[in-house]
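Input structure tokens:
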């Protein structure tokens, strides 16, 4: 719409408007007739006005006017438009005919432009976040252009300082992990410890790497081509199909196992959590055995700690865990990947943090300590009296009664635990000047199996430990860093299968006294010690009478 200027000398106003449906420019105003404008300055101009006609030649209202010059200009304008339109159509037809044979090239070029734009955006963002380009490795050995290694692929994936792709390193919130993978990882860790995040990060790094994109890490070396990258997270039920969440999971696992080869990357989060624990654990163990036999790379995370008690037939599977630490009386996840097994779940802490009533959480803790405080082998031996506990060499009858339910190592561990408890409770009674061992709080033993890590609550706290070495020989020690001490023991040849029992004490002085006491007393009860000479350099615990009043 174009507004006209007001008339001079107070004459009436009007508007110049575009009538879209008639494709015309008309003048609109009230009482703009020649008779009204006689003997006025606008008389000559108004005599040229005539009523506007529509496309059918009918008068279009009393307020719309036009002139012969405007009508002529509009006619010439429409003719010019028609000629221009015809010319443009002609040129487009000629261009279309010329490009007909180049359509595929144009489509491909358009696609490449989109890809190039995405690449530029990824590189730009990757450089801002300090990501790196990957090094792609051959999966097989070649000499003179010929393959010399048959059989399974020689796959390896090394990712140094991998960070979750959804975190910006510049903000300093991301925790980095180094993943050096040559086989399958069996991953454990507490709730909220970062297991699922690690699986997603590894999956994203592998996908970005094989596509040649930048990866959120310091350095990356991956096989140049995986035939499959599989990430299996939580499964949900499907009422429409009549399947539960566990049925859906098993269906997906079936597809996964049928498609997995030695060149695959398989990532499974919290396997078999939708069914009964015992059978779910056995199914999970069988799946781990199958993936281990295939020889693929991958990570299987689980909270089913019973899987480590199964006689798994695996050759290459490595045990990894997400660590935690003990800070101000609370166990907190560190989101760091370490070697070993973690049985710390932080279930009670997670429930409390998410607002579950304290009464519910405390009752859960009571139920846990009443039923799960000891493992099954120790419960089997619990009814035995002190005489059986202290007579190691004469325990064949005891062993024969329990051999069907616990291994010889479990039996030995149970005996050691009870003898250590009897010895230490008597000494603690003397130190605290108590009149009866019943007044001494029961020692809370921590059992640390093969490849397991001690709980974070042992960090920075004095503890006494007994190592059950291969060959049924014991080693007694004390430390303020149980995790570091256990790693040092396992680093020695032949000590990888050693297991430990430990308990916390108040202060290093008490720990030293109990250590020396055990070194001097355990051999007298028939146990064989590897460090018996250490007791000769101590002044504590040399009295033989400490066990005379001990009762269980």
């Amino acid at each position: 719409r174009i507004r006209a200027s007001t008339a001079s000398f107070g004459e009436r106003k009007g508007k110049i408007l575009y009538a879209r449906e008639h494709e015309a420019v008309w003048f609109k105003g009230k009482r703009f007739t020649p008779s009204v404008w006689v003997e006025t300055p606008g008389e000559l101009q108004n005599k040229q006005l005539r009523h506007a006609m529509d496309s059918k030649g009918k008068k279009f209202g009393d307020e719309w006017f036009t002139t012969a010059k405007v009508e002529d200009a509009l006619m010439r304008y429409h003719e010019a438009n028609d000629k221009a339109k015809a010319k443009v159509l002609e040129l487009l037809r000629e261009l279309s005919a010329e490009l007909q044979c180049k359509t595929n090239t144009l489509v491909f070029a358009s696609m490449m432009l989109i890809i190039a734009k995405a690449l530029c955006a990824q590189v730009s963002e990757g450089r801002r976040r300090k990501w790196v380009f990957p090094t792609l490795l051959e999966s097989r050995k070649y000499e003179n252009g010929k393959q010399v290694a048959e059989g399974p692929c020689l796959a390896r994936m090394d990712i140094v300082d991998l960070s979750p792709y959804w975190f910006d390193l510049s903000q300093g919130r991301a925790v980095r992990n180094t993943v050096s993978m040559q086989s399958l990882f069996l991953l454990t860790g507490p709730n909220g410890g970062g297991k699922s995040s690690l699986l997603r990060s590894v999956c994203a790094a592998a996908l970005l790497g094989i596509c040649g994109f930048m990866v959120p890490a310091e350095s990356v070396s991956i096989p140049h081509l995986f035939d499959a990258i599989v990430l299996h997270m939580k499964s949900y039920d499907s009422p429409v199909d009549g399947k539960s969440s566990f049925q859906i999971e098993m269906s997906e696992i079936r597809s996964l196992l049928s498609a997995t080869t030695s060149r695959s990357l398989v990532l499974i989060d919290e396997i078999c959590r939708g069914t009964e624990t015992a059978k779910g654990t056995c199914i999970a163990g069988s799946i781990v055995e199958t993936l281990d036999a295939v020889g693929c790379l991958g990570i299987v995370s689980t909270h089913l700690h019973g899987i480590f008690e199964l006689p798994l037939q695996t050759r290459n599977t490595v045990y990894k865990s997400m660590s935690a630490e003990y800070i101000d009386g609370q166990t907190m996840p560190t989101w760091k990947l370490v070697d070993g097994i973690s049985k710390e779940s932080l279930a009670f802490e997670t429930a409390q943090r998410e607002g579950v009533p304290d009464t519910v959480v405390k009752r859960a803790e009571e139920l846990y300590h009443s039923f799960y405080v000891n493992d099954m082998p120790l419960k089997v031996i619990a009814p035995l009296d002190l005489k059986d506990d202290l007579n190691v060499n004469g325990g064949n009858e005891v062993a024969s009664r329990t051999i069907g339910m616990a291994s010889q190592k479990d039996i030995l561990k149970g005996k050691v635990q009870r003898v250590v408890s009897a010895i230490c409770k008597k000494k603690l009674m003397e130190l605290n000047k108590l009149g009866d061992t019943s007044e001494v709080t029961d020692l809370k033993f921590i059992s640390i199996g093969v490849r397991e890590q001690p709980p974070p609550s042992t960090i920075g706290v004095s503890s006494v430990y007994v190592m059950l070495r291969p060959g049924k020989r014991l080693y007694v020690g004390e430390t303020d860093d149980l995790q570091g001490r256990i790693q040092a023991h396992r680093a020695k040849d032949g000590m990888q299968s050693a297991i430990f029992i430990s308990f916390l004490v108040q202060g290093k002085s008490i720990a030293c006294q109990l250590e020396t006491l055990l070194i001097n007393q355990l051999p007298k009860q028939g146990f064989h010690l590897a460090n018996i000479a250490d007791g000769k350099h101590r002044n504590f615990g040399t009295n033989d009478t400490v066990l005379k009043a001990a009762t269980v």
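Residues 68-99 form the longest helix (32 residues). The radius of gyration is 42 Å.
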